Amino acid sequence: MKRSLPILLAVALVAALSQAALSQENIKSLAPEAFGKLTRPPARFNHDQHNEKAGLTDCVVCHHGGSDGKIDRSASTEGTPCAECHKVKPAGRSTGLMNAYHKQCIGCHKARGKGPLACGQCHKR
Amino acid sequence: MGIQDRLIEDVGLRRGVSRLTPEKIETVVRSVMASEAGARLKAYSETCMRCGMCAKGCHFALSHPDDPSYTPAAKVAQTMGVLLKTGGRVDPGTFYGIAQLAYTECNLCKRCVHYCPIGIDTGFIMSMVRRICHKLGVTPQYIQDTAHSHSTTFNQMWVKDDEWIDTLQWQEDEARDEFPGLRIPLDKEGAEIYYSVIAPEPKFRTQLIYQAAAIFNAAGVDWTMPSQPGWDNSDMCMFTGDFEMMGRLKRRHFESA
Amino acid sequence: MNAAYQFVTGPLAWAAWGIFLLGSAWRLVAMYRLARKKDASAIAYMSWGYSLRSIVNWLIPFNALGWRKNPAMTIATFAFHVCLIATPVFLVAHVMLWDQAFGVRYATIPDAAADGMTMLVIAACLFFAGRRLAMPDVRAITTPKDWFALAIVLAPFLTGFLAYHQAIDYDTMIVLHVVTGEIMLAAIPFTRLSHMVFAVFTRAYMGSEFGGVRHARDW
Known about the structure:
The structure holds 3 protein chains of 3 kinds. By secondary structure, chain A is α+β, with helices and mostly antiparallel strands.
């Protein structure tokens, strides 16, 4: 077991890297470090598959800008971590990090009548 | 197990029930529900969770440990519960049991209130059952006799007006042998203490009045006793469900004071 | 699934809360009016001091006579009622929903604690059911209404527990959990659960009667 552990780790690392190389952030856990210790298992999210299914081509639909709790969809913000603007403990009218995820995902799923809504549908054990 | 398995013969209950029909019972139950029963009965009957904790507070239940039909909640279920569920339409035989239970298996002590977390007053519910019984003329013979005595003489033991004063003076006489200066002051205006008794004292235990007088005498207090009807502070009509007579008795007693 | 979930968390939730809040308020007002009309002699004795004295003394475990004579029931019923109210109110997932819907957020209890408290509620329900079956005193007075009340309360906790652990079928379980919770809320004003609304007043009256008329304690 002692000898096989480094090998296993190496295999895992290669697999992870190649996965990342094949498709950009394909399987993603929405678990930004800003949350610290998590209460629930992170929502797992397959970026490309989701967008294909949902027919999303425009990044700004999710990666929006804005301030003071108002969404601005004129400038795309992909590449900027959500936690950069949405703080865990929000100040003023801005949306907190948890609500940013919850409201954006669930809001869209509700509007489209498709996609998970209840807690355990994203936070799978 | 239940009240129907332990019926006893009572002349008063039997005669009362013999005059009843389910229709008569229903009419009276409905009229009492519409006029006298209020928020307390409604709240009690609705919110009792049947937890059974009251069983440990009732001496009838404690003295029948193998018969759960004696617990306060079970007694309510067998009386008011039946009347509420049927709207009062019960046959006279059933009503005999209801009356027997309400008069002889709950003495309205309200001890169960100390055992019920939400404060359901079984004694009050039983008084309401007795009220219905009284209105239907179904009351046990002996207690009804004392109630009749109340309506006639304002005391429960048929003690006549002059007998009462005679009795007091007799006891005063006797006591003066032992305590020469002793008096039993009658109707003394402005006395500090108004002393009243229950009718069995002059009737059967006259020496109790002597003894009370001896204590007042030794204590040297300013006291008096009433000479007129209204001197009996007991009220059997409250127990039979005769609330009209109960009101008259109370008024008379307070006016006498 | 989405339509069902949206229905039970949308219109049905509004209906359940509406029935619970307005229904309870209406029952209280109607009961107060009835008391004004028929129980004037009782209202005359109502006293804040004696009422609070009685309620406080009954809220202390093993303080009242009834609690002392029924120790197992005392432990079960206090654990049950505290967890029954605290768990759903302070559950992280529920506070999240308040926050998402209305921007309301407040203190929560850790999920592990909530999980334990849920198990306590379920265990207490089983204890109550066991009493109803095993104790002759209690069995004799148990009616279908009592089983109904017990089932109404057990259901949201059982389904909530299963949904939280994502056991059996999560999608069905979460909808069941929401629906059973709503049934419980809506049932409060109109079933045995109405003791939630009235118990404080029945106790207060007994406290006032024993304090003001008999000059005695009622615990």
